[in-house]
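I wish you would study the pair of lines that follows with an eye to the fold:

===
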Amino acid sequence: MRHGPGRGRGDRRPRPVRRCSRPCAGRPRHRRHHTPRQDRRLRLRPQAPPRRQARPPGRVLDIKSVVETDGGNERREDTNVDVTFALQAEVLFDKDSAHLGGAATDRIRVIAEEARKQHAAKLRIFGFTDNLGSADHGVALSKDRANAVQRQLAQDLGSSAVAYEIRGYGEDYPIADNATEDGRRKNRRVEVSFPRGKG
């Protein structure tokens, strides 16, 4: 096949060289370097969607039952988790004292019987006072009273396998208004709580 003048096989017009918009820093030009920027993006594998975690079962709300006896001097609070007894300090101790009175042993024995019934392996005994006097004195007195109740409980239970947590909080965590005498009387208390047995 004949070609026109100047159009032989060896006379093809060379393609124009595409200039790079940025210097090649002495590196030879190559096709990948001159491809559009969007084509040079790393092609990452799409991430798998996160596994859907199973929803935890809904928490069963505690069902409370509160019973007060002896004009509010003794209170029992039951939930589906714990049993809590609150005894007013006046029925356990003399004023500003940590020595148990005569009526205290009978009341503490009732608590020990319930703890034994619930197969409680740990008892929490917390003491509280009102806001009269210094804070340091209140903490010390509430701790001494909690210790006195714990010793009587340990004697009634007669088991070395039971653990005790004893704390004195003083005037912290009031359950009534300290501005009145009736409120202060309710705040002067010892609380004994333990987990409810299964079954």
